[in-house]
Amino acid sequence: MYMLFQQSWFQPIPDDVTEPQIVSWENLVLFTVSCYQYIILASVYSKGMPYRERLRTNYLFVLSAVSLTVFVTWLLIYPCKKMAELMELIATTPDEEEKFMFRVHLLIFPTLHLLIAVSIEAFISDQQWLKRCIQCLKRKSKPKNKYKRLLQQRNTFPWLNTIST
C-alpha cells in the first residue's frame, strides 16, 4: 500500500463517500498480493508426510498452483476489460504506461515473499540446531508426559524395578 500511496497518479478514495467503492487501486493491490501470499504459503508449507504428498509427486496441486499463479498474474498485469469488470478490478489501457509499470513492479513483493519463505523453510525451520536452541531456552526440568515421569522415577528409585518385575 505504501508503494501505491507514493504514485503521483494515485487518488485515494475520499473519506466522505458513503457508498462502498469496490473498484479501486487499494483493492487491486490487496487482492493480488494476498492471492500470491496464499499460493506461496500453500506451496512452500505443503512438503510431505504425514498429511501431504511431496510437490514432485502431487501433480494436481502443482497444476492448480501454477494455473492460479498465471491467472492472478494476468489479472494484475493486463486483464481484459470483461474480466476486470467481473472481478471488480481496475483495467488499464496500453497508453497508461506509468500505471502499467506500477503493476509490473508490484510483482516484486510476491517474488521476495517466495524467496524468503523458501529460505526460512529450507534453512531454518527444520534444522536440528534450531530445535536444540529452543530446548535450551525452555529448559524443561521434568517431562510433561506421565509415562516419561514414571520412567524417570523408576531410574531414580531402583527399588521400583524390583516391585514391577
TrEMBL record:
The keyword Metal-binding applies. GO terms for molecular function: ATP binding; ATPase-coupled monoatomic cation transmembrane transporter activity; metal ion binding; P-type transmembrane transporter activity; polyamine transmembrane transporter activity. The chain crosses the membrane at residues 28-46, 58-77, 104-124. It is found in: Membrane. It is a multi-pass membrane protein. One of its GO terms (biological process) is intracellular calcium ion homeostasis. InterPro entries: ATPase_P-typ_TM_dom_sf, P-type_TPase_V. Keywords: ATP-binding, Magnesium, Membrane, Metal-binding, Nucleotide-binding, Phosphoprotein, Translocase, Transmembrane, Transmembrane helix. GO terms for cellular component: membrane. SUPFAM superfamilies: Calcium ATPase, transmembrane domain M. The keyword Coiled coil does not apply. This is Uncharacterized protein. It comes from Acanthoscelides obtectus (Bean weevil).
